[in-house]
Amino acid sequence: MIVPSMTFVSTVQAVLATGARPRFADIDPGTLCVTADRVAQALTPAVRAVIPVHYGGRAVDLDPLQDLLDRRGVLVVEDAAHSFGSHQDRRLVGADPRTVTCFSFGPIKNLTCGQGGMIIPRGRPDAATARRLRMLGVTDTAAQRAASPTYTVAGPGFRAQLPALNAAIGLVQLEHFPATVAARQRLWRAYRSALANVEGITLVDVDIDRSVPHLCTIRVPADMDRDLVFRALREHGIAVGVHYPPDHLQPAFAAWRCPLPHTERAGHEILTLPFHPHLTEDDTQRVAAELDHALTLAGRRP
Ligand SMILES: *Cc1c(COP(=O)(O)O)cnc(C)c1O
Hints:
- The protein has helices at 9-17, 36-42, 63-71, 124-134, 142-146, 164-175, 177-195, 226-235, 261-269, 281-297; strands at residues 2-4, 23-25, 49-50, 75-79, 87-88, 91-92, 100-104, 117-120, 202-203, 216-219, 270-273.
- By secondary structure, it is of the alpha/beta class.
- The chain has a four-stranded mixed beta sheet, with no helix packed on it. The protein has a three-stranded antiparallel beta sheet with strand order 9-10-11.
- Helix 3 links the parallel strand 3 and strand 4 (75-79).
- Helix 7 (177-195) runs parallel beside helix 10 and helix 8 crosses helix 10 (281-297).
- It is globular.
- Bound molecules: pyridoxal-5'-phosphate.
- Pyridoxal-5'-phosphate binds next to helix 1.
């Protein structure tokens, strides 16, 4: 399966969990997403699936490649953990009937259920498979089981259903979602203008007019020590992070390592700024000022 290395480790572990092998693809340095070109380059006759990751909320569009992928029987499974509410062209992520889309509703995602997620199948057969797999292979609904002295186990399965308790949280979150979208877009734009005055850094583009941003990622200049900037900001109480240390360099995935120059370079330069809907525009200005200070400490050239 083709998968980017610039993603949370779970994307790659999901590949291994199916018994497949990852084939790592490089990214576009401006968006940190895979592109149709990169996927096409990674395609071999052995590839059965492609997992684009909508990094930061930006929806990867593999439409130019879809006919070729269909002809070869290659399934597109979108890792949409970052992109609930974002648009792919004019369509909401998840609405493409030719792809399987996987959302995460973990605690920090655009929409949260506390934990859990959602799969958007291509049609009824996919949906039936997903329902069976999530409930230990049992094909009867809870209502059917309650009304019957037996049940049917039709195949293998896991215990992976979204608990009703978590779903209840999600339903309330969903009511507030339009406000969340507005806040996330407003804050990302506020960061963009605050960061315009910070010399030397670049902002990773999320296609803000069509996306619900999940991360605000910057790149420090290539000749600077990103880890120094990271620590300086942490010491000043700014909760920066790194999304993500490249997966293909992890010991667990060494068997499938291959050179990915854009990913490796980004791995040394990226820094994610604090980003959640309860920040204020003042907060973004403070973060930008602290970042400017940290870059000077870390030896930015004028
Ligand atoms: C959060 C995240 C996941 C995992 O989601 P879970 O709900 O924890 O399974 C997968 N991929 C990416 C890119 C993520 O950020």
